[in-house]
């Protein structure tokens, strides 16, 4: 019973530090990990030492990949490659299907870029498209936001899915492949279908989103499409090559790490309490993982923090869950839960709201509802795939 108390207290403490005290997610996880160790009976020095050990293994596994992703994203921004991709997709779909082009652009750009960066790049393009084509600005923004959020949560090398793949011990190539499939369904449902529906019911006056803005991207020379796609294509090819190598040469995959918080939970014996909670509910492991991610996402706002924290909690428990499918579906379930209803505690919510000159109510009824629909569709697709393609 005391172990259950520690689990509940650790979740509450983590949420309190991030939400109420505005402590950065990194420091919140570190503090919570140390507190869990102490409450479990470890001496303070041993608890700090254990946290440092787990933190070091986590950072060493993903720091270089995240660093390269940041550099790649900056290069795409400064060179005009991101804008070239956006305009090429628009040319393919035509102005009459501009929202669909924005879904595709957000989906593609958010693979190498952070979603907030993709928003900064795409909002001026969405504004220009709406003004030039006479289409709904709301449809453009919902499409853009949902397309970018989909791959941000489901597809490495963004930090959340990248950390989950390492933590859960899942091959990165398989994570990208399954993640891209689930993300595609979620993006179309939230960005395209919901965007078309809500744009007929919510309208942003042109004078609000067009004031003082111009499409500056057309005034600069852009690189060709082949060169623009290299920062996306090259990592995908390399990761796919690694996946094939691991398939034919087992044992060469990168070893998984538990993560700082999850590692401490395991070493202190708290993991068994979480397992007990899972078994007592009798629900699907996928739904259990999804619910945990929803709780963390809605409580503190960051999708990445939710993915990293929940995967770290569940990683050491997977062998005891009796999975009848590949754990990659636990990953996509967590990712789906981590995109649930982006609202006022999410930085992406404010990026879109402020840059588009929308009210909070307008953002909640359009983009936030789109993210909720994406979350539910992501869960449904995950459940279906785990049955028809278990890969167990």
Described by the principal axes of the CA atoms, the overall outline is globular
Give helix % range: over 70%
> How many strands appear in the DSSP assignment?
0
Mean pLDDT: 78
Helix/strand order, N-terminal first: HHHHHHHHHHHHHHHHHH
Secondary structure class reads mainly alpha
Multimeric state: single chain
Count of DSSP H/I helices: 18
Tell me the number of structural domains. Answer: 1
- Spans where pLDDT lies below 50 across 5 or more residues: 212-218, 247-258
Rg to the nearest angstrom?
A: 21 Å
Distance between the termini: 34 Å
Q: Largest sheet, described in full?
A: none
Beta-strand residue fraction:
under 5%
Write the layout of secondary structure elements.
Layout: H1 2-19, H2 25-39, H3 44-79, H4 81-93, H5 98-109, H6 115-133, H7 137-154, H8 159-168, H9 172-198, H10 206-210, H11 225-248, H12 260-267, H13 271-281, H14 285-300, H15 303-314, H16 328-337, H17 347-355, H18 360-388
Report on this structure.
The protein is mainly alpha-helical and 392 residues long. Residues 212-218 and 247-258 have low confidence and may be disordered. The chain has helices at 2-19, 25-39, 44-79, 81-93, 98-109, 115-133, 137-154, 159-168, 172-198, 206-210, 225-248, 260-267, 271-281, 285-300, 303-314, 328-337, 347-355, 360-388. The radius of gyration is 21 Å and the shape is globular. It has one domain (64-388).
Short description:
The chain contains 18 helices and no strands.
